[in-house]
From TrEMBL:
Leader sequence segment: none
Name of this protein: Diguanylate cyclase (GGDEF)-like protein
Superkingdom field: Bacteria
PANTHER family: BIOFILM ARCHITECTURE MAINTENANCE PROTEIN MBAA, DIGUANYLATE CYCLASE DGCP
Pfam hit, one: PAS_3
Database matches in InterPro entries: Biofilm_reg_signaling, Diguanyl_cyclase/Pdiesterase, EAL_dom, EAL_sf, GAF, GAF-like_dom_sf, GGDEF_dom, Nucleotide_cyclase
Residue ranges constituting the GGDEF domain according to the UniProt record: 341-471
Family matches, as NCBIfam families: GGDEF
EAL domain location: 480-733
Amino acid sequence: MQNRSPLLETTRDDDERQDRLQARLLMTLRAFAFKANAAGLTFPCEATAQALLPLSSTNSYAERLEESIHRQDRAYRSATWTQAIEKQQPLVSNTFRVCDQWGKWHWLHEEAHVLYQPDGWDAVGTFVDVTRQERNAALHVGQTRILKMIAEHRPLATILDSLNLLIEELVPESLTCILGYAPLTNSVYDLSAPNLPQGYRTAINGLIVSPDAGSCGAALSRKKPVVVKDIATDPLWKDFVTLAVDGYGLRSCWSHPILTNEGNPVGTFAIYHRHPHTPTGWERELLATAAYLAGVAIERSESENTIRYQASHDSLTGLPNRHRFTTDVTAQLDAARQQQTTLTLLFLDLDRFKQVNDSLGHSFGDHLLQTIASRMQDVVGERVYRMGGDEFTILLENSDARQTDELVKRLRRELSRLVQLDNYEYLPSVTIGISDYPGHAENAHSLLKYADIALHRAKEDHYGGTRRFDPILAQNLAQKVQLESDLRQAVEQQAFTLHYQVKVDARTHQPIGVEALIRWQHPERGMVSPGEFIPLAEETGLILPLGDWVMQTACQQARAWEIAGLPLRVSINVSARQLLQPDLQKRVQSALQQSGVRPDLIGFELTETAILKHGKSAERTLNALKDLGIWLELDDFGTGFSSLVSLRNYRIDVLKIDRLFVHNLKRTSNDAAIVRGVIEMGHALNMTVVAEGVETRAQAELLTELGCDGLQGFYFARPVPVEQLCLDHAPRLRRAA
């Protein structure tokens, strides 16, 4: 056997060593030299080819390279080379993705210099691994795009779909999925997975979270990333391997929890492959970045949803609010017009809610509102709105009068049940106004306005009533608005007069005083009844300046009579709102000083309801007035719920028996017994007792017999202007003086 030459052996070993060193250097630099011509592709270093290209049954490097290029990039690279050769371009440049023999994807930048000869062409060039640069650039662009979509308030589904597609592009041959987490049910729900099989998405939707419920369940339970290389063998997937592997060919799943800034889980981001696969370090970082971006999008969406909810819902009851009502009623009216159907509006007001708050406290008031809201929803579902305070509305689509009436009955039964909180109990009631389209209104504003008008008319009738709108109500409201305007102008111009009604001694029938009664001569309507404009003045607050004018005018008239030698006590009616004025004592003192009248010639008539309603506050005010020296007279006694015992602390001077007891007074009637008892108790408390509403001689005689001190009524005198009073009663006034 011929011996090998040591020199040749050494040279061959050196060449192989040089090849390996060159391959190692190129692998370190991630650069690979190549030659190419029409016949194919060659590599100067065999080790380079083995590292770059996947194993294949073919010996052709060109075919092996073609097989390793990503399917989306093959046509583009082939077209670039074909065009360059046809046009004899000296430089060919491409960037594409290849899969190496270990299944990892790389981005290669190809750059080749081409020499053209009559019989063909030859090229030399390099493949440079630019995976990191390309991936980072693509991730930066994609991340910027996702954040921009979040900033632009794009729909959450659109943002999450775009994020999934970005990750699938950066991790070739992957399928991605974003699941949301519902803590109340401890389950996941489908948010986005544009390329994951729909059947699989449906199957995992609603999956209960547990530490062994697949990669996503484990990630949510641990609040840490969970990587499963092979679903077929991993114990986390034992209950789902048939679904994932056999059903849909999924073999690996990496899942990362999506956490809030407080560390609370709101979902997971998962990457699937159809073959066993372990993530690289970069892919792990990418998974974390994807979960972070999904978390930003989800939190931003939830914040916006919360803001939208708060803007359209009442914070106390959770009901849609006035803003939402306006939007909904407009939309439902449009639908009713198109479909030629009806829309009915119920406007509900909780009766005496202010008194509940004042007497039982705001905590009970809040509980009452929440209970009422819940009960209304139990009856009518999601068509209830809280308009503010104690007002609610309900919208009924295509409900006729009979159906509406039946619903109102059910509402009343439900809402009138006892409400309890701690040691307090309350039986609520509601007043309801109704309007409808097209019967009453054509737009949202009119529909609400007319229901409100009907509601307030129902309240005027009685609490707990129901009233449908009719045009007469609107006409009455217009008249009321006009009257209020005229009343304001009259108050500013002091366009009122005082009439006076004489009070007489029950035995001598001589005048003992007068009551000042306001009158309004309207320039167009003539004399307006006090029963019409006094309640309006109370409602609008005009009673305060009006009361000041009455007090000043009456004091001046009392002083004029005093100067004329006719010292008559003038009684002035004081309303409940006036009694609440903190500076009422100063106002009265000012009127006394400006007029110069003796305080004992002025009496204030107050109703028992006004006094008892304000308790200690009223007691302090009345004591302060009494300290000024004026008389206090209790008007309309017997029409409220008081007793003389409860009034004995108020230093009342005069007790006036209401005309209701006088009107049907007979010697053997119950009214006579009541009047006798009132007179006796009044005298026992050192009060002067005066009966008002005396219209007949028989009434006057019986009241005198029962012990009444003073009488007032049409039998003796009607209210008249001061000039007429002086003419009619001059002789008696002089005798009284």
